[in-house]
């Protein structure tokens, strides 16, 4: 007979001794080989990246986890990625959104401040490099669209690295500037004010083409420079991995790898910073504020100062990521910073598990993969069916006859919405709940 | 010199004067109680002392300097810690974290040192933790409960954690708002002894509000009685117990008062 | 000849070629995006015979760019990673097209754009990027010239704060000022419903004409409210106005006063008979009128099909490479589409795109096809 | 036959097993008191009776009708009133509105007004504060309001959870007087008190709870004399 | 039998109307004063000259001549916002969460109302309708929209929010976002199944589009025609009725008291004999009904709707609710009026005062900027009262 206890025992056994090591390695191998041999299979890719979950979840020693993670992220992924750059792009976007989610998580998860305009800081970073890393400075006198295309660049592309740091500072300052007046507000007021602020930044980006053309309005700024990629790096990559990859990799693809790695670096930094802060008096003060502001202030915690710290820290990561994004796309436009983006990042945080670092990363990965890969893949599959002669067996319905109104590609929001609702109903604490919160929920669920 | 001095403090809510020209003095090392009928203005008076309310009139001097206009966290940093009438712990933080929060402004770490983990940071954290354990033990909580979420402790335990958290700030003055409410006689006796120890061993001045005469009469060196926002009497426990005005307005003549007498004996 | 080859070489095994579309299929811009996909879909269904005869089955792979650059780029990477995709049709938003086309360019995959009028799209000079619509800089100029000829003295310009709408409006303004007309106002608005506040300066300016750079859903509401408030001048707009729904929204008062004209690159039925058939087919298939850019999408897809066909033939029936298809697109001469006759120049703009100025004649949406062409121009893109 | 019966009731907070098989009987017209240390499960017992918590096992019977799975509002309608621990004042409703809500199940406006008059004569302080928001009352005033609100319903069984908490000694006396009066007028009372001595002095019977289990049940008079009780709960050394 | 005055609390009926008048007059007066002062100050500067050159009128004339119409327009849109804001406030007041799906509930109301009108039009009834019948038909559409939205809101609460009651605060928020997405596409699906298109245009009928003219003000070479459309009057009227009704319900009836009690403390409310689930359902029903009515009115006023129509008005309405003090019904009204006036003033005068450098595109920034400013000085909104928990 099947019983829950037996099953749990079985799971527990799987997670002791050498078994988890074997399981992890097998999972990684299967995933990697599958993706390698059929580089366009979405299923293969999902199997592959879910090996990160196995790696995270199973019980192995730290050094093994770390080295397996490093090899996976730094070697296996880039190699598989350049065989199908779509995967690299997905990994890149996961990294970008994971970084944003981690930043937002500081604000929401730790300090308990609901920020609905978080992409504003992302925009600040992106436009910062967008302006200084392009010809826009010389285009100021021209209305959007009518400037000559042979204007010089203001700064060399390698200033990009410097601007990552400048963006951190500028975004943090923007955070403080916004925070100063509004952080005294109660939760939901803050939510709507930040939402407004997000809109203000987007509208400014869209409108600051008049009277001086600073942002080039809705047309966006392009080309935004990238840091130079030395030829030897490209050659080196090809020499080193050429054999496995099977074709020579172009400079453009090596750029993709570069930005992917850079995003990883930012994430690692954020994780370090966040977990260290969380484990200090600052983190404790944030949690205390989240729990009871009055008691916190009576205990000597300077409320506004600590909230500002949370706001600024969260903002600074978004700023850095903005610079990265502008350079990798070589293009910035207001469309990237809509309210929907803010909501998207918020969804990642809550879906993953508010306050939980691994949870938030998983949330970012899930939403991104869902949005770019699974839902699109599903739609494409159905669209193919519709163009084929396939028939649904029993009811004898030809896919061809499916009404064009029912094209699933058009109803991604419906699917996405349904997934959100179901997730919240069945897993309200998120995919990987924060350790503390888990206990809280267990105790509360009777009420 | 007086540790704390309130001169003509007045706090109004709309038309209601909750605290009316309150004059009050506290010497270093005293244990003083404030009693008075419900709604007399005791908690409000506490809130003006700790900066949660700003009085409309009057002066508050602590060690000779004015507290008026300071934020609660600044006042806390000057050495006044408190507990709340309705327990206000950080329910989803562990017991030890609650106590560590109380140390907030004593810790020298900042964002940079926390991120870079200097040796000084590690040392300070270890010391703080050790100190927190000490305090948890001191207020009478089993240290095995240190990592329990505060809200999962029984009521009496939570009261003690609140006291530990306040002590963590290493205050000169401790304000306790009905610390024995909701405790049974045995526990009440335990915390009463705890307060005395805190004063004797840590040399912390204590000002407390309490309706439980078993506590008030036993440990107070002086009692202030408030009614309708004003101080109506002040004196030793014996004086207050026999003050007919206080009996009338507050103690009552019946069973309760009698019982307390009985109990104290 | 083609006839001969089609009879002699139906390959034993048919190979699959795919053509991608990218446009917003979800979200609030899907009104236009879905019809871009539909236009392409219809073209594929109607005109895949030639390639089928050559032994190639052509499939459509529609992608949803959600009007979002990030999604667009990710899709682009997925598109270029599928070797079966040889040509693409898209996008709606220039903001999505510009970063996505970097990927198409890197992968050598040719795209034909049915709707991106932003000059920057082709100014980069990529072989893989083409469009069959006119550029904003030309369409704006056409409009201003027309207004000038009609004797308009003062013009209030409004745009929708999109790359498209503002683009046209900027060039309209530039040309109008050059021609000596007074631009009484130049304002952008993302508002879709309530134009009361914007109408205050419009009415106060007492302008002869209001030019709206944008799309009909917004324009219709604006024009309606302007008439309700007593504006009696002429309305004008670019090809984004070309939908019968415009009169449906704006109501009969649209034709009062100076009436309404619009410039367009899409030929009316009288000039391009294919258009009428397209509209009829579209209605039959989807039970709805085609939105702007749908006919262009139909043409874009046909160009893809034709180019692939030419490339296959040039290779003797073998599967062409992407670069060969891209070159074949550029090699097309006077391709007869339903919205014009197309030849691409060195940067992918159509040489001599045709522009029409059309006057709305009836408030009945059913009679949208009877609108009169009052001016026809054939203009080359500005040389770079 | 007893009016209110708990049969082997088990209640949980998530995984915390708070009541471990409690059986209690309360007869018509009695005052029954529950005493026990902090966290013993006294409040949990009241919550289980009033339906805020549903027992995982066991039954709660009101005149032989099983109410263990009824919703709180239906239980109130059946005549059980509960003045909760921590007072549960609606902070943004005025004192008057708080009291009106107490009589929610009643539709007779005149009767409501009459009861309100009665309640504020018992607690003149509330009359002074009648249009103040509940949340700004002092602790003791809130306690008075909670009790007054409980009186508005005039239930057949009234459960009071630590009614004397935070009240001045004079008022504690008053509260106990009121409880006695109510009982004399026919209300059955279930009383939870830290001030066990006073509770036992007005109760007919009592139960002693310890970590979720009933360890002693006896008449009030006997309990008062019981050494364990004296030592642990009455503060007699 | 009781006498009328005993059963009906007249004060609660009149109070909101008085407040409404006071807010409208007050808000309008303040803003008018500001622009007139600005105009007087800037008249002789480059700003004035620029306007003179463009419109050949002085800045002061321009401002004064346009002012009355701007006030009328601002109030109209303000009442639209207020009507939507009531729904948000209602739900927020009880569950303390931002019902993101309210904008789609609003949209559904609009679609149901408009579909009925389209059906009537296709049946030829609409064009044949006399004026009286036209009003009846509008009422019918309004009621249909209200019913649909009301029930939808209740269903949404049952399915997507109720299971989440005990969860942390942000969880229902995400669920609401999910519902919002879901409903958007459902509307799209349903609407395009029938006609292939998912946007709808409300048929023209009755005399709703007519404009009542009050007079004319000369402005340079042209005149400003003062007037208000009949449909705007209907919008205002219905919004006022909704507000007064809702205010009465919440503040003067037993159900209202129960709603407020549930809002503050659910377990205790249930101990008072209140059926919490029922009250929450009623709240959603009311909120949804108001949303549906607002949807139909919105379609009437602005002609064209699509599945995403709810988003921006929803956002504005929520801003209005916060501006006024969320959870406070009168606050929602005040917030709506202030926001409506502000953005209309900004849109109408910005370009004149900035020499054309910035115009209507900044009106939203203006709205949000003012929101931030107000909240700095009144952290709980204009009408919000601060019931701080006692220490
Ligand atoms: N924010 C406020 N607004 C209006 N009145 C208030 C406010 N806070 C307190 N009050 C009133 O001020 C008076 C004093 O309240 P306070 O809480 O200081 O009393 P207390 O002496 O602590 O009483 P208790 O012993 O019952 O706790 C009370 O009557 C109370 O109703
Ligand atoms: N909401 C809750 N979540 C989790 N555990 C709870 C909750 N409420 C009570 N408990 C636990 O259930 C047990 C019984 O608590 P209960 O409140 O019934 O005790 P009590 O006898 O009323 O104590 P007190 O005298 O402190 O009021 C305790 O261990 C307590 O920690
Ligand atoms: Mg008090
Ligand atoms: Mg209890």
Provide a short characterization of the protein structure.
Chain A is built from 19 helices and 2 strands. Chain A has 447 residues and is an all-alpha fold.
Keywords:
A: 447 residues; mainly alpha; two-stranded antiparallel ribbon; 2 strands; E: 391 residues; ABC transporter involved in vitamin B12 uptake, BtuC; 15 helices; globular; disordered N terminus; binds adenosine-5'-triphosphate; binds magnesium ion
Description:
The complex is a heteropentamer of chains A (447), B (265), C (384), D (237) and E (391). With 447 residues, chain A is mainly alpha-helical. Chain A has helices spanning 4-14, 19-37, 42-49, 51-57, 62-83, 85-110, 119-132, 136-139, 159-182, 187-207, 231-245, 251-278, 281-291, 293-298, 303-329, 339-352, 357-387, 412-426, 435-444, and strands at 391-392, 397-398. Chain A has two domains: 1-83; 90-354, no CATH class. Chain A is globular and about 65 Å long. Chain B folds into two domains: 1-79 and 172-265, 3-Layer(aba) Sandwich (Rossmann fold), CATH 3.40.50; 92-170, no CATH class. Chain B has helices spanning 42-49, 72-77, 95-102, 111-116, 119-138, 155-168, 185-202, 213-219, 237-241, 244-251, 255-264; strands spanning 2-13, 16-27, 31-35, 57-62, 65-66, 80-82, 173-177, 205-209, 222-227, 230-235. Chain B is globular, with a radius of gyration of 19 Å. In chain C, helix 4 packs parallel to helix 5, helix 7 crosses helix 8 (163-178) and helix 13 crosses helix 14 (322-331). The two termini of chain C are 38 Å apart. With 384 residues, chain C is an alpha/beta fold. Chain E has one domain: Orthogonal Bundle (ABC transporter involved in vitamin B12 uptake, BtuC), CATH 1.10.3470. Chains in contact: A-B, A-C, A-D, A-E, B-D, B-E, C-E, D-E. Bound molecules: adenosine-5'-triphosphate (2 copies) and magnesium ion (2 copies).
Question: What is the CATH topology assignment of the largest domain in chain B?
Answer: Rossmann fold
Structure annotation, total helices of chain A:
19
Mean pLDDT of chain A: 84
What's the count of strands of chain A? 2
Poorly predicted runs of chain A? 437-447
Please render the helix and strand layout as text:
The complex is a heteropentamer of chains A (447), B (265), C (384), D (237) and E (391).
Chain A: H1 4-14, H2 19-37, H3 42-49, H4 51-57, H5 62-83, H6 85-110, H7 119-132, H8 136-139, H9 159-182, H10 187-207, H11 231-245, H12 251-278, H13 281-291, H14 293-298, H15 303-329, H16 339-352, H17 357-387, E1 391-392, E2 397-398, H18 412-426, H19 435-444
Antiparallel strand pairs in A: 1-2
Chain B: E1 2-13, E2 16-27, E3 31-35, H1 42-49, E4 57-62, E5 65-66, H2 72-77, E6 80-82, H3 95-102, H4 111-116, H5 119-138, H6 155-168, E7 173-177, H7 185-202, E8 205-209, H8 213-219, E9 222-227, E10 230-235, H9 237-241, H10 244-251, H11 255-264
Helix pairs in contact in B: 3-5, 3-6, 5-6, 7-8, 8-11
Chain D: E1 4-13, E2 16-26, E3 31-36, H1 42-50, E4 57-62, E5 65-66, H2 72-77, E6 80-83, H3 95-102, H4 109-122, H5 124-128, H6 139-153, E7 157-161, H7 169-184, E8 188-192, H8 196-202, E9 205-210, E10 213-219, H9 220-225, H10 227-233
Parallel strand pairs in D: 3-8, 3-9, 6-7, 7-8
Antiparallel strand pairs in D: 1-2, 1-4, 4-5, 9-10
Bound molecules: adenosine-5'-triphosphate (2 copies) and magnesium ion (MG) (2 copies).
The site of one magnesium ion has 4 residues of chain D, from helix 1.
């Amino acid at each position: 007979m099947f019983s829950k206890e037996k099953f749990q025992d079985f799971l527990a056994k799987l997670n002791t001794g050498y078994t988890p090591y074997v399981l992890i390695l097998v999972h990684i191998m299967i995933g990697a080989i599958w993706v390698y041999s059929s580089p366009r299979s979405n299923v293969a890719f999902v199997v592959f990246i879910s090996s990160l979950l196995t790696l995270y979840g199973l019980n192995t020693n730290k050094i093994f986890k770390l080295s397996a993670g490093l090899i996976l992220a730094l070697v296996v992924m880039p190699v598989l990625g350049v065989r199908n750059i779509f995967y690299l792009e997905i990994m890149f976007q996961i990294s970008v959104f994971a970084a944003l989610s981690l930043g937002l998580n500081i604000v929401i998860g730790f300090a308990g401040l609901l920020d609905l305009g978080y992409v504003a800081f992302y925009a600040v970073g992106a436009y910062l490099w967008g302006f200084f890393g392009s010809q826009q400075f010389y285009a100021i006198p021209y209305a959007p669209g009518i400037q000559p295309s042979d204007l010089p660049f203001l700064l060399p592309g390698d200033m990009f690295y410097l601007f990552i740091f400048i963006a951190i500072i500028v975004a943090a300052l923007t955070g403080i500037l916004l925070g100063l007046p509004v952080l005294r507000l109660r939760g939901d007021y803050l939510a709507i004010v930040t939402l407004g602020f997000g809109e203000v930044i987007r509208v400014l980006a869209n409108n600051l083409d008049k009277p001086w053309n600073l942002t080039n309005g809705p047309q966006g700024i392009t080309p935004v420079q990238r840091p130079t990629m030395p030829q030897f790096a490209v050659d080196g990559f090809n020499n080193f991995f050429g054999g496995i990859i099977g074709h020579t990799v172009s400079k453009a693809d090596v750029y993709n790898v570069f930005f992917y790695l850079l995003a990883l670096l930012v994430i690692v930094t954020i994780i370090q910073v966040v977990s260290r802060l969380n484990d200090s008096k600052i983190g404790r003060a944030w949690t205390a504020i989240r729990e009871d502001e009055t008691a916190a202030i009576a205990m000597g915690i300077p409320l506004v100062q600590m909230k500002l710290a949370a706001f600024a820290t969260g903002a600074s990561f978004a700023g850095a990521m903005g610079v990265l994004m502008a350079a990798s796309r070589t293009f910035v436009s207001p469309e990237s910073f809509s309210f929907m983006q803010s909501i998207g990042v918020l969804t990642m945080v809550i879906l993953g598990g508010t306050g939980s670092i691994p949870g938030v990363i998983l949330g970012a990965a899930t939403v991104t993969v869902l949005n770019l890969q699974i839902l699109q893949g599903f739609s494409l599959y159905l669209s193919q069916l519709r163009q084929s002669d396939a028939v649904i067996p029993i009811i004898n319905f030809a896919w061809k006859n499916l009404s064009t109104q029912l094209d699933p590609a058009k109803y991604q929001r419906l699917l996405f919405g349904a997934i959100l609702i179901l997730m919240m109903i069945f897993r309200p604490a998120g995919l990987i709940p924060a350790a503390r919160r888990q206990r809280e929920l267990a105790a509360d669920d009777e009420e | 010199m007086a540790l704390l001095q309130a001169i003509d403090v007045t706090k109004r809510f709309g038309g209601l004067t909750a605290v009316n020209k309150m004059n009050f003095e506290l010497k270093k090392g005293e244990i003083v109680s404030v009693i008075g009928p419900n709604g007399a203005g005791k908690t409000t008076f506490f809130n003006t002392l700790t900066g949660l309310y700003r009085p409309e009139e009057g002066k508050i001097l602590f060690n000779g300097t004015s507290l008026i206009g300071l934020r609660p966290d600044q006042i806390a940093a000057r050495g006044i810690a408190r507990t709340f009438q309705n327990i206000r712990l950080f329910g989803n933080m562990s017991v030890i974290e609650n106590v560590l929060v109380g140390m907030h402004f004593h810790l020298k770490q900042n964002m940079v040192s926390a991120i870079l983990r200097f040796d000084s940071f590690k040392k300070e954290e270890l010391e703080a933790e050790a100190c927190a354990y000490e305090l948890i033990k001191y207020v009478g909580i089993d240290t095995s409960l240190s990592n329990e979420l505060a809200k999962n402790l029984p009521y009496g335990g939570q009261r003690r954690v609140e006291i530990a958290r306040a002590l963590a700030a290493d205050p000169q003055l401790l304000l306790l708002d009905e610390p024995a409410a909701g405790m049974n006689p045995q526990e009440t006796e335990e915390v009463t002894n705890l307060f005395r120890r805190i004063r004797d061993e840590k040399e912390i001045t204590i000002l407390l509000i309490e309706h439980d005469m078993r506590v008030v009469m036993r440990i107070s060196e002086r009692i202030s009685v408030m009614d309708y926002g004003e101080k109506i009497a002040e004196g030793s426990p014996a004086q207050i117990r026999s003050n007919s005005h206080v009996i009338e307005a507050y103690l009552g003549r019946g069973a309760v008062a009698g019982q307390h007498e009985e109990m104290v004996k | 000849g083609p006839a001969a080859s089609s009879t002699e070489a139906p390959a034993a095994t048919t190979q699959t070629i795919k053509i991608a579309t990218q446009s917003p299929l979800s979200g609030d811009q899907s009104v236009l995006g879905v019809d871009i996909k539909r236009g392409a879909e219809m073209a594929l269904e109607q005109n895949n015979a030639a390639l089928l005869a050559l032994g190639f089955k052509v499939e459509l792979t529609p992608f949803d760019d959600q009007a979002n650059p990030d999604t667009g780029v990710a899709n682009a990477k997925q598109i270029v990673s599928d070797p079966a995709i040889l040509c693409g049709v898209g996008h709606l938003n220039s903001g999505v097209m510009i970063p996505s086309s970097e990927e198409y360019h890197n992968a050598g995959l040719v795209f034909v754009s049915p709707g991106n009028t932003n000059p920057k799209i082709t100014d980069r000079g990529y072989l893989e990027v083409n469009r069959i619509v006119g550029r904003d800089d030309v369409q704006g100029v056409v409009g201003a010239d027309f207004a000038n000829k009609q004797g308009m003295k003062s013009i209030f310009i409004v745009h929708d704060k999109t790359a498209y709408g503002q683009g046209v409006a900027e060039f309209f303004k530039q040309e109008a000022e050059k021609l000596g007309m007074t631009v009484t106002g130049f304002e952008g608005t993302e508002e879709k419903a309530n134009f009361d506040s914007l109408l205050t300066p419009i009415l106060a300016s007492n302008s002869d004409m209001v030019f709206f750079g944008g799309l009909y859903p917004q324009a219709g509401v604006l024009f309606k409210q302007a008439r309700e408030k007593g504006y009696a001048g002429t309305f004008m707009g670019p090809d984004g106005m070309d939908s019968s729904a415009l009169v449906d929204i704006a109501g009969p008062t649209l034709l009062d006063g100076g009436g309404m004209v619009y410039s367009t690159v899409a030929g009316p039925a009288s000039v391009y008979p294919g258009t009428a058939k397209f509209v009829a087919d579209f209605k039959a298939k989807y039970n709805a009128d085609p939105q702007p850019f749908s006919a262009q999408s139909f043409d874009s897809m046909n160009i893809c099909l034709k180019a692939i066909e030419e490339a296959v033939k040039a290779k003797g029936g073998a599967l062409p490479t992407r670069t060969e298809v891209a070159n074949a697109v550029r090699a097309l001469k006077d391709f007869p589409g339903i919205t014009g006759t197309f030849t691409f120049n060195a940067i992918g703009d159509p040489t001599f795109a045709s522009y029409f100025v059309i006057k709305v004649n009836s408030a009945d949406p059913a009679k949208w096809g009877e609108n009169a062409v009052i001016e026809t121009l054939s203009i080359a893109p500005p040389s770079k | 036959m007893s009016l209110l019966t708990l049969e082997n009731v088990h209640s949980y907070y998530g995984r915390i097993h708070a009541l471990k098989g409690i059986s209690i009987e309360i007869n018509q017209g009695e005052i029954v008191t529950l005493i026990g240390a902090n966290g013993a499960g006294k409040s949990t017992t009241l919550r289980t009776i009033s339906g805020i918590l549903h027992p995982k096992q066991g039954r709660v019977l009101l005149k032989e009708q099983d109410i263990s799975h009824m919703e709180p509002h239906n239980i109130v309608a059946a005549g059980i009133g509960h003045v909760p621990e921590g007072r549960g004042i609606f902070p943004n409703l005025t004192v008057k509105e708080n009291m009106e809500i107490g009589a929610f199940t009643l539709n007779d406006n005149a009767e409501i007004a009459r009861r309100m008059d009665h309640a504020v004569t018992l607690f003149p302080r509330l009359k002074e504060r009648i249009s103040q928001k509940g949340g700004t009352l002092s602790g003791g005033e809130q306690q008075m309001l909670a009790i007054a609100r409980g009186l508005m319903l005039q239930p057949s069984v009234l459960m009071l959870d630590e009614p004397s908490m935070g009240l001045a000694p004079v008022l504690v006396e008053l509260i106990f007087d009121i409880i006695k009066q109510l009982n004399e007028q026919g209300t059955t009372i279930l009383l939870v008190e830290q001030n066990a001595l006073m509770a036992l002095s007005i109760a007919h019977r009592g139960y002693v709870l310890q970590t979720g289990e009933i360890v002693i049940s006896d008449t009030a008079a006997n309990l008062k004399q019981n050494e364990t009780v004296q030592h642990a709960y009455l503060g007699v050394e | 039998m009781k006498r009328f005055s005993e059963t009906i609390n007249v004060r609660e009926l009149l109070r909101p109307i008085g407040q409404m008048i006071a807010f409208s007059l007050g808000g309008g007066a303040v803003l008018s004063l500001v622009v007139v002062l600005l105009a007087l100050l800037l008249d002789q500067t480059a700003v004035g000259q620029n306007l003179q050159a463009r419109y050949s009128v002085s800045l002061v004339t321009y401002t004064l001549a346009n002012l009355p119409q701007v006030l009328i327009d601002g109030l109209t849109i303000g009442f639209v916002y207020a009507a939507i804001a009531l729904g948000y406030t209602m739900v927020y007041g009880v569950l303390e969460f931002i019902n993101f799906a309210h904008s789609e509930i609003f949209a559904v109301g609009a679609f149901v109302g408009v579909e009925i009108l389209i059906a009537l039009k296709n049946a030829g009834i609409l064009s044949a309708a006399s004026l009286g019948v036209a009003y009846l038909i509008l009422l019918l559409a309004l009621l249909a929209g209200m019913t649909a939205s009301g029930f939808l809101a209740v269903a949404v609460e049952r399915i997507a929010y109720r299971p989440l009651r005990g969860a942390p605060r942000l969880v229902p928020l995400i669920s609401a976002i999910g519902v919002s997405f879901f409903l958007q596409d459902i509307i799209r699906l349903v609407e395009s199944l029938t006609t292939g298109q998912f946007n709808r245009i409300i048929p023209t009928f009755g005399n709703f589009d007519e404009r009542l003219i009050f007079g004319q003000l000369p402005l340079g070479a042209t005149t400003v025609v003062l007037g208000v459309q009949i449909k705007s009057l209907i919008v205002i009227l219905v919004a006022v009725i909704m507000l007064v009704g809702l205010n009465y319900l919440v503040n003067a009836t037993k159900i209202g008291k129960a709603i407020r009690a549930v809002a503050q403390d659910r377990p205790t409310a249930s101990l008072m004999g209140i059926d919490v689930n029922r009250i929450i359902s009623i709240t959603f029903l009311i909120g949804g009904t108001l949303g549906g009515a607002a949807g139909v009115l919105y379609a009437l006023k602005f002609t064209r709707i699509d599945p995403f129509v709810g988003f921006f008005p929803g956002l504005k309405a929520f801003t209005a609710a916060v501006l006024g003090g969320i959870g406070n019904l009168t606050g929602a009204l005040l917030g709506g009026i202030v926001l409506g006036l502000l953005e209309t003033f900004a849109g109408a005068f910005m370009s004149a005062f900035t020499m054309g450098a910035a115009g209507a595109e900044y009106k939203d920034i203006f709205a949000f900027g003012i929101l931030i400013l107000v909240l700095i000085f009144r952290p709980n909104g204009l009408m919000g009262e601060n019931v701080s928990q006692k220490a």
